[in-house]
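User: Just a sanity check before I run the rest of the batch. Below are the structure tokens for the first item. I only need the designed sequence back.
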């Protein structure tokens, strides 16, 4: 791969840093494999890992496609999934019509925070289920326990997110 080709697969801030493209690629594929094991689809996992490994935290579709050797359609579908999960944002590259896909330092926080509305919907569904199936039936008791679990998790998640904000400020100070 020539220097020109290599810089085309990296983010603007990554080019010329002397990073070993092979080491970056190994990290991307190894971390993506871990994400896939945890349930994330393969292509979004690779895109997410590539963005994390980029010094700029942002790459264009062409850069992602070149680095991962995948089609623009594969990048598009993966980015759609990642934006729905609040793991990646889409921004316009300044001065162009190209989109940049970006991970932020708080992407995990945002992704977990977005689960609040999901948990609320699940809680409502469990309440409806208990009402329709009856509290005293085996299924109703199972749903009641599931509802209690979701309520517990939601309460713990809110407290954990508050503690993380304080801990993050203590570690990184500037909020970045």
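Assistant: Here's the designed sequence for the first item:
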């Amino acid at each position: 791969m020539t220097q020109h080709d290599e810089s085309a697969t990296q983010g603007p801030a990554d080019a010329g840093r002397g990073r070993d493209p092979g080491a970056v690629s190994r990290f991307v594929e190894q971390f993506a494999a871990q994400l896939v094991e945890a349930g994330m689809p393969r292509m979004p996992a690779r895109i997410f890992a590539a963005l994390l490994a980029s010094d700029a935290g942002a790459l264009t579709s062409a850069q992602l496609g070149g680095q991962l050797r995948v089609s623009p359609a594969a990048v598009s579908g993966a980015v759609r999934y990642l934006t729905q999960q609040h793991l990646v944002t889409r921004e316009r590259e300044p001065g162009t019509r190209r989109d940049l896909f970006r991970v932020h330092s708080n992407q995990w926080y945002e992704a977990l925070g977005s689960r609040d509305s999901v948990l609320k919907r699940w809680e409502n569904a469990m309440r409806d289920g208990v009402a329709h199936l009856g509290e005293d039936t085996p299924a109703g008791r199972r749903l009641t326990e599931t509802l209690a679990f979701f309520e517990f998790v939601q309460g713990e998640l809110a407290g954990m997110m508050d503690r993380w904000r304080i801990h993050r400020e203590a570690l990184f100070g500037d909020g970045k």
